[in-house]
């Protein structure tokens, strides 16, 4: 038989590239050769495919089979090519519908008994197949629900290799094999809780609403027990639900992380890595397949760094570029992957190692150099990218419960975001935190509204980046007030929030 062709998908981040899988049979010494820049896991597919075909009673011919993965210069990683390789090899010997094989994309790993094992990243693979013009895809049965989230393409969820073969017209026996289910841990929804549970931090709650309305970054500094973690955990509850496009991004990243997907998520993600996390854990990477880090998993949601001063400085400094650009590009030898990273950063830290520095009625035992080193873990360039500095004090009365509920705050945030989206309708931005500084500086404002910012810039109290961030924050305050005019009051309040002088 002439060269047989089918298709697979190679993932690079959440972007999929089409791979043509070619199989050729020649009358030479029996062998099974796999070429086309495969990594070690993919190179081992030869043994998996051979045994799976034999146990599925679809034995391969005892001649030389050469399988080429094209384009050959594109790096291919992982075991998700097994099914495509197996079907191309089977077609060199068995009677099969070549038309059906050529219009189908195959995704999945094979077990030695011929069952299809689930693989991560099926959702972006199916999206890539559909966008490339294909109308049918074969996936492991355990990934079927995830693949069905993509409209406009037929999904075949196969339990065994024999099921795939019969779908292409091969006459073979049906094997009673139990489908393999995914053993991955489900990604948890944001922590539950209502803003009304927050006690004695009325101004902090208001600042959190401001941050949510404009998607601004926040750093909260205060002693242990002030309620920093409680406030951060309530933030996802007052943020608007994900749009369809955002939900697709979040679902693709969860798929790459190996989490099972039954439906597109609607609630914004909430990531809270431990302070022992490495740069790779926070930013993403890996020596083989590039995996998304915490900042990518928090895309379109909240990245919460509790006890931020306990993180190594190099880890925190790794946030500088993605916070500015809204994406993270990871370079490895032979591969470059880009992930979305536009998230809302919330940082919580104590004032010193013991937590009592500046606390009335408490004794701080930390020497001055230790306090300076502790506070400098969050470097100047990182702080400059944060919009709101929120100092918090220890609660002194349990009777000062918040009168703001999550439902009321969510309505205020939604109204402010709707106003901002309407004002920015002719621009590529939809929330204030994304607007460029050049655009803001050209926007007309009430006479004298920017005077306080201009003086702070002249005195060196803020940088030009801080100037722009204060302007974004001022527009959010105006949106919350329900006005289309930026006043000196809004700018002054924004400057105080930026400098941590008011809440």
TrEMBL record:
Pfam families: ChlI (PF13541), Mg_chelatase (PF01078), Mg_chelatase_C (PF13335). InterPro entries: AAA+_ATPase, CHLI-like, MCM_dom, Mg_chelat-rel, Mg_chelat-rel_C, Mg_chelatse_chII-like_cat_dom, P-loop_NTPase, Ribosomal_Su5_D2-typ_SF. It comes from Microbacterium mitrae. GO terms for molecular function: ATP binding; DNA binding. It comes from the Bacteria. Residues 276-351 form the MCM C-terminal AAA(+) ATPase domain. Belongs to the Mg-chelatase subunits D/I family. ComM subfamily. SUPFAM superfamilies: P-loop containing nucleoside triphosphate hydrolases, Ribosomal protein S5 domain 2-like. This is YifB family Mg chelatase-like AAA ATPase. Gene3D superfamilies: 3.30.230.10, P-loop containing nucleotide triphosphate hydrolases. Keywords: ATP-binding, Nucleotide-binding.
